[in-house]
Amino acid sequence: MIEFTAILAWPFLLAGAFFFIAGTLGVLRFPDIYSRLHAVTKADTLGLGLTVIGLGLLSGSLRTTLLMILVWLLVMASGATACQLLARYERERPQVEDENGGR
Amino acid sequence: MLWLISLLLLTVMASMVRVVVGPTRADRLLAIQLFGTAGTAVLLMMAYLWGQPALIDAALIIALLAAVITSALVQFLRREHHD
Amino acid sequence: MAVVDWVYDGLLALLVLGLAAGALYSLSLYRAVVFYIALGLVLALVWARLGAPDLALAEAAIGAGLTGVLLLSALKHQPNKARLMGWPWLPGLTGIAILLLLIMMVKAVWGLPQGMAAVGQAALLAVPESGVEHPVTAVLLNFRAWDTLLEVLVVLLALLALRQLTLPDETFPDAWPLLLAWSRLLAPLSLLLGIYLLWRGADAPGGAFQSGALIAAGLLMLRLVGLSPALPWSRFGVRLSILIGPTIFLLAAMATASLGAGWLAFPPDWSKALILLIEVAATTSIAISLALLVGSDSRELNQ
User: Fold this and answer.
1) Does some domain include residue C274?
2) Domains of chain C: total
3) Gap between the terminal Cα atoms of chain A
4) I want to staple C194 with a disulfide (CB 3.0 to 4.6 A). Which of A31, B42, C132, C215 is the partner?
């Protein structure tokens, strides 16, 4: 039984790592701030969720799994809110400012 | 598992580039959010790998603080435009 | 050590060095602050790697969280470009000094015996008598309570020093409803986590400084979005909660010195209760002091 869950866990962990890589690629390659916001707050949060599922399967302890799910919920809420906040900040910012000057 | 953690660290390292090139302040703040999420994942994996449940608490705190920092910094940055 | 250990440790070390270099050499102060916060987060990972979850918690809460916000609030009063120092010989001199220091440190570390030192073993053996189960808490509040007392006093001194300065007025724009709702969720959550850390401190990593920093972060969040006014120094309760930690600590020290075995040598039957009392009082003081350090009410100060 334990071995079965361990085998089941690895695809989740690998998929989690995949989404982290995807998120970073998005941050590096996407053309503007709004699309980059999506890359971090969505792909990385999903990556964390898959990692949590994988680790929960591996650990086999209900308490640990629930704690980790709590962490994930917090990160999800934080990611969604941070995305909105940063996008609004960027839209509100006076656009006349020089992009590279004084920052 | 350790390879996986190293892989995550590598992605964190790559996204440092975004802090350097920007171009906007929101981009750099976004990097903090990314560091928070990836750091949480790394801590959770370490907690499992070395059997240290205290690191899950640390992950919880990093997640909370990343959220606080991003929100607080947005408020600080907005202030400068309202002068 | 397997290859993967080297890869992993090497990546962590490179990351720390890169972020530190970024924080030091960024030409824009804002960028430097962002690097610094990220450095704090990665340092927490390094402490976790070294098997010190207590330090990981402290570094995340104080190093990354609170210091980052403190630096950013100071940024407002600085010119936007970092200025280079006027002394051209300074970098070279610093470089030589650091090189000498590095050589000394490498020599010192090279001579260390492998495994646990005798002092560490003596401390671990004495943990059951300390009144708490977690070794780090036992060391901080029983065996080396002196250090912790002085640390609590340092926070108090910093706050008193800040009050001598005249700060420019701080006003924040009206927060968006989204931010208001989010901080209504975040602030109680940090309070809850802070109390949880304090509670766990007896038998697991956690403690007064980490917990105080988290509670301060919650208070600060409320202040930034305008949900709570700045804590007024004129209010008796605020001053009381700033002073209660050092006071109780000093009272305990004096009581043990005059009635018991000596300065801060807790009697074993009482030590659990005493440590708990001191921890709660110190957390209150640290939380309120840190919140005041970062988000102090300048209008009141300028009067």
Assistant:
1) yes
2) 1
3) 56
4) C215
